[in-house]
Structures are given as C-alpha cells and as structure tokens.
Amino acid sequence: MRTRAAVLSTAALLLTALTPAHAADSYSPLPPANPFAGPVGTATMHGDTGSSDATPLPGPGAGSIRSNRTALQSACPTVLVGADGYPVALCTEIFGLAPTVHLLDPATSESVAELTLAKGSLLGGVYAYLDNRDQLVAVDGNRDLLRIGHRRTASGGWELYVDSRLSLAGAVPEGDAVTGLSPDWQGRVWFATGAGVVGTADDRNGVVRTFALPAGERVSNSISTAPDGTAVATTHATYLLTAAADGTPQVSWRQAYDRGPARKPGQLSWGTGSTPTFFGPTNGTDYVTVVDNAAPTVNLLVYRTDTGQHVCSVPVLKAGGSGSENSPVAVGNSIFVASTYGYPYPKLPDDAGPSVPASDNYRGGLSRVDVRADGSGCDLKWDNKTRSAAVPRLSTADGLLRTVLRNPVIPGTSSTSVLDPYSYAEIDPATGRTVRTAYLGAGFIFDTLQMVGSIAPGRVVLQGTTTGVLRITAE
C-alpha cells in the first residue's frame, strides 16, 4: 500500500505537470478602471477602455469542457457583461446586415430580448461599450449616439430600449460612419469615423466637438482611452489625442508606421489591423502598441504614452503568416500578437481595396514580445504557428491565454474549407504551448471569424461566431 506521503508527493508532481510554467509570473497591472465604463474585463470588446484584451476574471476550471450554441442568425463580434451579470451582444444579421442588440440570459446565453438598430457601414455595427449604468453605448446608421438599457416588462420578461439619443449628423459627414468609440475620464464619448474624423460627444449637454485627421488617413478599427488621452490608429499612423478645454480633440503626438505596399489577405484595410492597446508595468498605460503592415514581415511597435517616444520595433509572426487584423493582447511588460494572414473573411468593407497577393492560405501564427524592464527596447520571447481563429483573451486570475483554433480538415495542410473544425484552446503564455483543447464543432456556423471571446463571471467564455454565440464552461 502506498503511504500518505507518497500519495501527496505524486499529487504534487501531477499538479506541477498540469500547472502552466507561468503560474508564478505576474501579468499586471491592467489599465485603470474607467469610471464611465462597465466592469473591467467585460465592458468593451477588448475588455477595458485601454483595449488590453486581458481580464481579472478566471476562465473555465479543470473539469471537462462543454459548449452550447445560441443561434442568432447573426455574426456577434461584441459580447459584453455589465455589473448586473447580464450579457449584451451587438450582432450583425447574416441577411440584411442590420446591427441587432441581444440581451442574453446569464445562465443559458439564450436571447431574452432584442432590438434592431439602423443599418450603417459594415464596421459601424461592431464596436460599442457598456457604461457605468450597464447601458450599451453605440452609434447607429443614422449617426445617432445611443444609450441602450434593459429592464423588466410588466409581464416579467425583458426589453431593450433607447434611453437617450444624441445626433452626430452635424459632426459626421453624410456617407461617413463611426467606426470606434470609448469614454474618457471626464464622461465624454470619444469617437472616430472611417474617413478620419475624431470627436468628443457629451450627451449630458449635447456638445459635440470634432477634429479632422490628415486627408487620406482612414480609421478601420476601434479606439482606446486612458487617463493620458485617446489612442487612434489610422491607415498611416498612430496618434495620442487629448481634449482642449471645450472638448475639441487635439494631437498630442503622431507616429507614422510602415503600411506596406497593399492590404494583405486576411486583413480588412490597407494599414494596421490593430485597435491601439495601452499597457505597462507601472500604471497599466505606460505604453501604446500596434502592429504595422510591413511586407513581408510585420512589426510590433511600442511607444511611450506620455511622449510618443519610439521604444521598439520587433518583427513578429515569422513562423506563420505575417499579418494581423487583431488588436495586440498586452498587460505588464508582455504583448501577444495573433496572425490573421490569409483568414477567409466572408465579407469585406466596401473600401477595403484589393489585397496583394489576391489570396493566400491561412497558416496561423502567435508571438510574444516583452518590453525590457528598463524600457530600453523589446525582445521576441517566442513565435509559433498557433492557428488562432479569434482574438486571444488573457486572464490575470489564472494566467492563461484563451482562444479558438481553426484546424484544417486535412492535417498537415494550411488550406481552409467550410468543413474546418473549431476547438476551444488554452495556451501557456510563458511558452506559447497549447495546454488544453476541446472540440466545439465544424463548419460555417462555428466560425469565430477572428472575433473576441469574453470571459464572463462564473468562469464562462462567451465566444461570438458567424451565426451566434458559443457558451463555453467546464463541468
């Protein structure tokens, strides 16, 4: 018979073997909580207004992974969770492409209420955030800034309703549309349009102020806010903007980047695919990072938030396809970048333009870069061919990166098909090694389309797909 000591020793060895090597590492701090946004980790598509793509919430535990699919006949890139625990999803209908808000049951993720918004541009129905009253803040196709709440009905059900509306039509030109928005620390809503108009809107008093970025610079991703200012990445440069006394945006600094010779396959615009990410070891916003569009190999770029000083430029995604439409994941001194090069998007924005080459296989790729402790530069820690089909999410609670893998039907190839299988995956950020996977399903209805999975309270992952939302838990 084995002694109690031997049993405990064996258990300790097993625990060591199953615990990622990074367990003692500290991925912190997160960007500071914005007083005008919802809970850190679930208030925005990228977790917080700094767009860290990190969360203080733990993901599914050690039990067997199970998943359920909520069919919404819509692609659902934005799934947020308020302080009341109710998930709110902003989706785009497959047929008609109208943006639709769904309130989801926290226990089942089934839709309990929906509200259709006025249709705008393809990217205009993607970015939104939850405010400090659990209201969804979005701009519809009529160029109205909306705050959408949810409440119980007399019959005991739920309804979504527009609590306030502020027209941005005088600030956003006809034919243009708001691409990204985020609150600042004064309660104003910052926004950026596809054609390069940056503005602030205060729906408490109706004041809207705008500033036009240089002609020809477009904004194809969302924006990020921190106490230091608002970060905007155009198709040519990265900016930090602050507001004048009357709220008018003004440029604090601008850093141009290599946008490459053309749009790459697997990207939605000719330029960076990044929503700028604030991160840093001191206050969570020491640095701003984006990925450029250099050819053949893209670079991770890091700047000091306060001055715009260039910290480093590191070639990334060298093992797989070198191009990314995804925002970097960053916290503390560490940054993670996932490749989307060659990813087969079913629809592109009208102004996307041709890619060079016209198409290519999706080979995957994931890199980690660390900023040196003294801020003197950056180092590539690892680089591999992980075939991430979603923006990874890092949990600072359990120290794991989570994503969805898209594997080829024919092993050993890099081609894609409508029959491709998808798997939930957990990755050790210290090594880049995948430590656990679980099959989710195959085919178009499970395509996660490089969308972000949100970790909700209760160790639940809510992952948008082309047709609805996956609810991933552990038994």
Structural write-up:
The protein is mostly beta strands. It has one domain: Methanol Dehydrogenase, Chain A, CATH 2.140.10. It has one helix at residues 4-18, and strands at 54-55, 65-71, 74-81, 87-93, 99-104, 111-116, 129-130, 136-139, 144-152, 158-167, 178-183, 189-193, 197-202, 207-212, 224-226, 229-233, 237-243, 249-256, 277-279, 287-291, 299-304, 310-315, 329-331, 334-338, 366-371, 378-384, 390-391, 393-395, 400-406, 421-427, 434-442, 451-456, 460-464, 468-474. Strands 1-28-29-30-31 form a five-stranded mixed sheet, with no helix packed on it. Residues 1-24 have low confidence and may be disordered.
Secondary structure topology:
Elements: H1 4-18, E1 54-55, E2 65-71, E3 74-81, E4 87-93, E5 99-104, E6 111-116, E7 129-130, E8 136-139, E9 144-152, E10 158-167, E11 178-183, E12 189-193, E13 197-202, E14 207-212, E15 224-226, E16 229-233, E17 237-243, E18 249-256, E19 277-279, E20 287-291, E21 299-304, E22 310-315, E23 329-331, E24 334-338, E25 366-371, E26 378-384, E27 390-391, E28 393-395, E29 400-406, E30 421-427, E31 434-442, E32 451-456, E33 460-464, E34 468-474
Parallel strand pairs: 1-28, 27-32
Antiparallel strand pairs: 2-34, 3-4, 4-5, 5-6, 7-8, 8-9, 9-10, 11-12, 12-13, 13-14, 15-16, 16-17, 17-18, 19-20, 20-21, 21-22, 23-24, 24-25, 25-26, 28-29, 29-30, 30-31, 32-33, 33-34
